[in-house]
């Protein structure tokens, strides 16, 4: 057997473990959004059983720092270039959408609910939004410098001050206090 034949099975096993972690986290967290309370009487629905999409800020120290800021309540917003979303085939979130944030190891750590979505040109992002993102020193100048550099790397010449940016505000639904509880 060659390495090429073994590797897909290894990736499948890793994916299965991650899926189980996400499913267990969703089972523990879904009651915090009012789902699953009547399963015993009425049966579950797909929305109750199927976990929301999961994602991460990345797998480096900065990504862990961003996740920690979400968990301690300092970070309540994020931003993505609309062109970046289109490149990876994702849609703009809608108010009420749920998502699970995983850490760099793939462990689910937070359930978020989108509370506000707005698309504005890059040069119209406000200081209030920059502060809510809790990145860098929290200033609009720092936010613009960091995001421009990042989007120039990703989008190249497609970046401009009029670039459409999706601004998302969210609330931490689970865990509500302290570190993420262990899930069995």
From TrEMBL:
Tree of life domain: Bacteria
ASCH domain segment(s): 55-174
Pfam families cross-referenced by the UniProt entry: ASCH
SMART domains assigned: ASCH
SUPFAM superfamilies assigned: PUA domain-like
Classification via Gene3D superfamilies: Sulfate adenylyltransferase (3.10.400.10)
Protein name: ASCH domain-containing protein
């Amino acid at each position: 057997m060659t390495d090429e034949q073994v590797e897909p099975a290894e990736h499948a096993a890793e994916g299965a473990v991650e899926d189980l972690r996400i499913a267990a986290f969703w089972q523990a967290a879904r009651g915090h959004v009012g789902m699953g309370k009547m399963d015993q009487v009425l049966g579950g629905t797909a929305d109750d059983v199927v976990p929301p999409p999961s994602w991460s800020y990345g797998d480096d120290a900065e990504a862990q720092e961003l996740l920690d800021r979400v968990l301690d309540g300092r970070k309540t917003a994020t931003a993505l270039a609309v062109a970046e979303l289109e490149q990876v085939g994702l849609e703009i979130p809608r108010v009420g959408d749920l998502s699970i944030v995983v850490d760099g190891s793939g462990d689910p750590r937070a359930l978020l609910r989108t509370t506000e979505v707005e698309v504005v040109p890059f040069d119209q992002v406000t200081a209030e939004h920059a502060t809510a993102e809790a990145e860098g020193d929290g200033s609009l100048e720092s936010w613009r410098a960091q995001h421009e550099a990042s989007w120039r790397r990703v989008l190249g010449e497609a970046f401009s001050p009029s670039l459409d940016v999706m601004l998302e505000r969210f609330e931490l639904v689970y865990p509500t206090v302290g570190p993420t509880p262990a899930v069995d």
